[in-house]
Amino acid sequence: MEKEEHGLKAxxxxxxxxxxxxxxxxxxxxxxxxxxxxxSGEVSSIExxxxxxxxxxPMGRPCSDLDDRSPFRHEVFEISSLCGHELVSPLEVKLLxxxxxxxxxxxxxxxxxxxxxxxxxxxDRARRALDLISRxxxxxxxxxxxxxxxxxxxxxxxxxxxxxxxxxxxxxxDEEKSVVPVAQAGRAGEGYLEGVRISWGxxxxxxxxxxxxxxxxxxxxxxxxxxxxxxxxxxxxxxxxGFFSSAAIPLRLGGEVIGAVNVYSSNRGAFGPEELGLxxxxxxxxxxxxxxxxxxxAHHEALDxxxxxQVLFETISRAAPDAVIVVDDDCRITFWNEAAESIFGYTEExxxxxxxxxxxxxxxxxxxxxxxxxxxxxxxxxxxYRFEVTAVNKEGERLPVELSVASVRTNSRKITxxxxxxxxxxKVSEARLRESSKKLEKLHDIARKLExxxxxxxxxxxxxxxxxxxxxxxxxxxxLVENDRFVVxxxxxxxxxxASVSAPLSVSSIAAKTYxxxxxxxxxxxxxxxxxxxxxxxxxxxxxxxxGDIGVFQAASPIVDAFTExxxxxLELLLGHAFxxxxxxxxxxxxxxxxxxxxxxxxFNRRYFNEVIEHELYRSARYSHPIGFLxxxxxxxxxxxxxxxxxxxxxxxxxxxxxxxxxLRASDIVIRYxxxxxxxxxLETDGETDSVKSRxxxxxxxxxxxxxxxxxxxxxxxxxxxxxxxxxxxxxxILAEADQRMYEEKRRHQSTWR
Length: 754
Fold this sequence. Notes:
By secondary structure, the chain is an alpha+beta fold. The chain contains 21 helices and 25 strands. It has five domains: 1-114, Beta-Lactamase, CATH 3.30.450; 119-298, 2-Layer Sandwich (Beta-Lactamase); 321-422, PAS domain (Beta-Lactamase); 433-587, GAF domain (Beta-Lactamase, 2-Layer Sandwich), CATH 3.30.450; 597-750, 2-Layer Sandwich (Alpha-Beta Plaits). Strands 18-17-16-21-20-19 form a six-stranded antiparallel beta sheet, with helices on both faces. Strands 2-1-5-4-3 form a five-stranded antiparallel beta sheet. It has a five-stranded antiparallel beta sheet with strand order 7-6-10-9-8, with helices on both faces. Helix 3 runs parallel beside helix 7, helix 12 packs parallel to helix 15 and helix 17 (637-644) crosses helix 18. The longest helix is centred in the C-terminal third of the chain and has 32 residues, at 565-596. The model is unreliable at 1-13, 118-123, 300-321 and 376-380 (pLDDT under 50).
């Protein structure tokens, strides 16, 4: 992530340095210490520009080619070293030589060569951090084992995070308090962990970042491995592999530290606050992943949705100037380079002699800019400052410009150098970043809302509404695949009537391709795309994204090329959260069903009976409807098990359960009460239990699917009882009556078995 080399501070957004040399000796310098590691110590040893730049810039004779007719010379160089030290990124030197009254003055203006590259670097770093978290969160969804969770984290820390080596160790409660590596990645670290001893105890093997992170429960960084005393047990092997700094983040599960995530860098001084924050999020993600795998495999609770971490995009630096303009005491232009001509449209001939503000500054702010440029520095002091203005080019077009100003007075003469850059693109990028940040915040709110829902249909509606309000998709629909057809689950308000309908899962359609490939498809103009079949002719572009593995989300627009890469990224992020919510809800429903169903017969179990009986008694009493109870036992069931085996006995139980479900009403409730006994609750029967009992006893003898299972007739012993609202007997007495009558019936049947 962040680098720091010897010889130059690795920071961004520094103010430019300015030096003035008079007849070969430095007379004034300001801001140079920002660019040197040694700070003021190195600055004090510089006596001339030659000392500073060395061979990086051909100095020659300072003013040998200048005279009264041509007293100025302006040069621009790009250098990669200062005082003999290599730089992290190149610097730009603007060198102005002036001959006045026989005295040679040279002014050097130093700053980052291209501050826009810094912005790209920072944005790339932020995107890389987002990509690392996003990819790891996606990987957690697919992880089936703890090994997958741990190894994927190490792989991504090396592949995406660009660390030299990453490993995860878990603490062991043995005598040595060992830390055992369970996952690792990075070619530089091959063999590093073999034979080494790492402890989380308070001995010499527990003083490294790993042991301390586990013991203290907080992130620990070693910024200089070669100079560290506590790193002695592992220092030699680390230096061999080019490891100069490392960090360990505690890995927590259930509020307890179970191990540590360890990463290594080839740079000294690595692992600042941003990287530690990122590593902490990864460690949190690992803990969530481990918890998810353990929870799912144990079947103790529903799978928690993994939250996608969100990463904030930030802009640190302003765009650097690239136009050079020199003005005199009256703010009249005396030098105008090609870059200034490119920005403002005026040639050097057209600009020279003109007042800078009158030529290119917006009239509304012209007087304030002129006044600011006209401020006189006292004596020989250098004055530097930077501000933004609205400029007007030769064509009359207004554009934002950043001005960096350096003014110095020598004798009776003032020199002002302006560095200007068109920051239009930077402003547009800044606006896009702000818009992206706002969308991410809103999507984060939607993700939290989705986690609180317990109804699938609500998830579909919330998802489509979010696509409308956050992503500005006015025409969109979410369809699930059911029985080889796309079934509409939710549509936006902008979908024309009849435009979104249930359709077969046609292999050639865009939706089907999205569903089968699991990849997002973006078509800029459907009229030019073979096979595209929009439901209305005025729709031109479309984005089609998979909704997990169960459906497809589609958005369309009448505008060609309406959807961008950002739209794809944000949509996939939204759909990922929504799909996880659906998976969670379905898992919760499955677990609830498993808790109230008998796994062999599929009938309700006694737990369900205990839950619903009070409600049914209350409803029966309120509406004065009796409830009939049938206690049903399979005759000779022990004989079936003993003679034909338990597998046949299970088939008999299943067949009888299907028979009861078929013969009784949909409103009746059948319970597998225990063993070979079933309990039927006949709601609102009005005394019909005897007729139902007779029908069941008669029809089971004619059910071929049941009778063909064994070599003797399968019959039922059924005892009936009624609960009347008027008597308000305890339900236990009613069940006991039905049970007693069932056993009386069984005794009567026994005489016919022999």
